[in-house]
Fold:
Amino acid sequence: MRVLVVEDEPGIVSGLQTNLRRFGWAVDAAADIKTAWAALRSEPFDVMLLDLGLPDGDGTELLRRLRSASRQGLPDPGLPVLIMTARDDVASRIGGLDAGADDYVSKPFDAGEVAARMRAMRRRSVGRADAVLSHGDLRLDPAALTVCLAGQPVDLSSREFAVLLALVEASPRVLSRSQLETKLYNWDRAVDSNAIEVHIHRIRRKLGEQVIRTIRGVGYFVPSVSE
Ligand code: CA
Structure:
């Protein structure tokens, strides 16, 4: 999952990055509205975490601009947005929700709760009710980062889990290597050109060769269950 954190407090940003990266998520940060807007226009994010008090304006301005963007290309006007507000600031919370936020957390927050709310928003945005994904013999639990194949737990790294989750969510659509890279790597990290191949190779070794198919020169897909 690709996450954009819009927050001007460096301590909060680094705490979130550390905690959210444990799930294999790619976390980018922007400290003001201008930087955030440029990021939203250039990268496909899955979720945005938005502070309301920013140095160059109110976060709800960014939210309104995002929600009124055209449906063609980036930014994605339907991007799930979680706002961060002060504990007793009910007016901001109401303003944020009315400006198009999907949910909120109050500061100081627990990073585990933030992650759970983001997973819930992501599920809603892809139209999935169950927190655990089932696909044939596979069961993926994004909260626990666990995978079972025919009832047997299989040990995947957080990156391998993130690759498999993206492909299962997209199934049977094909994802290109660069689409997978954008979900896994944030913009300040150099990506090895064969990193995705390495993850896929390891997933196949653990779950079987047939779990992920390759279309040479195009990308990868997990076949639909009926195949
Ligand atoms: Ca702030």
